[in-house]
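Retro notes, item 3 of 5
We never archived the inputs for the pyridoxal-5'-phosphate complex last cycle. Fixing that now. Sequence and ligand:
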Amino acid sequence: MTISQQQLQFDRNHIWHPYTNLNKPTPVFGVESAQGVYLTLSNGKKVIDGMASWWSAIHGYNHPELNQAIHEQIQQMSHVMFGGLTHQPAIELSRQLIDLTAPELDCVFLADSGSVAVEVGLKMALQYWYSLGRQQKSKFLTIRNGYHGDTLGAMSVCDPETGMHSMFSETLPQHLFVPSPSCVSDEDWNESHIAEFRQMLESRADEIAAVILEPIVQGTGGMRIYCPEFLRQVKSLCEQHDVLLILDEIATGFGRTGTMFAYEQAQICPDILCIGKAITGGYLSLAATITTRNVADVIGSYGDGNLMHGPTFMANPLACAVANRNIELLLASPWQQKIKQIEAQLIAELASCRQLESVADVRVKGAIGAVELKSPVDMHKVQPRFVELGVWIRPFGKLLYIMPPYIIEPDQLSCLTKAIEQVAREQIKP
Ligand SMILES: *Cc1c(COP(=O)(O)O)cnc(C)c1O
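Structure as it came back at the time:
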């Protein structure tokens, strides 16, 4: 069934899309189906997907094995409550996640979306200090340009400007922010990059429950890449000052930056880890918060010791079943080599953008490529232009960026990089 003009009109009048204005709708494209790295749009156009549906569809769309995992599970049960009940897919997934992450990470909460996984991580940290009788440790410290989700708690630790804190300032808890590191590689490291962070921890550790940040790559807050040394310093300062470390790998997890998790590049381990997005290969909404035995023990030792969270659809069996197959597929594939190839090709093919007058910066890490322009694009023009060029790339603000499915072939990836260069060129003011 193709989407009719009438239906598209209904969509424009009644349905909010992410961050949109119903009074001033931006164009949306109907999608009929998706296969491998292709989306088939209602206008008949087949486009190469550069977004992996926001970092998630790492093996591409309509994957026979992922489809099968869902079919098999649906014969057993689609959903049961997780209160007082458990099931094979959740147990298997938790076991896989514990095996996949650092040895210290041992206790799993299966949430239903990334934002919820972040809320749970924040609560774990607050309950940890409460249990130790230190409830004054109730603030979070983070770096600017971060993104941790759209629920109020998660939002309170997003970048205050891009997260529009001013609009919600009467409601949002006030947390602590320091500039994000500007040091891209360890070779350029010096103490100044950690100075403000260190100062904040030294002066206010008594109020700080945890540091929360995205390791190595800051995603939606600006597609910024920073060096592992910053993370090592953060970890060591957190230990020194009795502050927990929450790493949000919802975007970076499952190989995207070249290692299974980005924190591995700094040889550190968080106290609390949030993962999501690619966990089900883009099939269903699922996320997880994983912590150490120590954090779980401390939370469990005070009062009735309950971790205060429990969404209706937590650990949904269909989502867990497809997540299990997704992780098996990833581990059975030569993913490290594949990400390296994608990275090398992105570096080679996006380099020419640097010369363009409209371009401020080009950044590549693993299977992530971003071209930052000097001024924001006009989405009304640029979005249809990308479709015309045969690709699905969704810019935001000044950023043209891609994080394609890992199965993308070199010639398909070239179509994406060519389209970015073309659009960047068209942004040059005459
Ligand atoms: C997408 C994202 C979230 C929020 O996940 P949702 O599933 O959209 O709620 C949180 N943190 C990071 C780093 C993300 O990229």
